[in-house]
Amino acid sequence: MSWWGKVLGTAFGFALGGPLGALLGTVVGHQFDKGLKLVTGQTMDREQIQMAFFTATFSVMGRLAKADGRVSRQEISFAQAVMQQMALQPEQKKVAIDLFRQGKEDDFDLEGVLEQFRSVVGRRSTLMRMFLEIQLQAAYADGALHAAERELLIEIFRLLGFSRAEFSHLDAMTRAARDFTGRGPGAAGGMGRAPRKDLLKEAYEVLGVKAEASDAEIKRAYRRLMSQHHPDKLVSRGLPEEMMKIATEKTQEIKNAYEMIKETRGTR
Question: Do the Cβ atoms of 174 and 137 come closer than 8 Å?
Fold first, then answer.
């Protein structure tokens, strides 16, 4: 049974429960015992993890969009672009929009949602990283990371067990990726691509290595990132199938950066 089938099924409450289940239950009109005992990542199957990932992604994205006091047109466009990339069914798109709106509410339980999400995902660090990369992209949708968004992202990283240094690392890679590709879901129009002279610098940052790194170090970084973002691996660990295209575009971005570095260095 697919994760979406479970959302529509009568066993939905028992499939998730907790803050994430309450959020999803509200937007799809399910009624169930909100005191239901939470199940952990060790007892959850892939469809339940996918359900949690979908719910957390769009609700936290809504909270992040409201962090600086207003939700910009670009932030809404980014969320819509992610939905379009996922080729959501009309019912799924409505749920995603409603989750985004729930995230903007003053009573949104960010800590509860993220604590449950962390419990559900368990040791699947690559899945958690993908979630954080999507949130970082959302924060940059209007072309800048505002102070309130930055502080909220640092808190999101902390609640998911990531350090401030890991935030800085992923933040730098996200900024470099935006400049390197000159695009991204919901990217502000007219930003264009970085000047050619800056692209090589951005390519190194996309891989998370310094320009002085050896060829072997660069190759290791490339292989590690490709493994972390492999769409089939991510789906097997709980990424919703609808998000495969996002992961595929990320691997292409990593590959393009690596090819530019290799071409510049004259290596194979």
Answer: yes
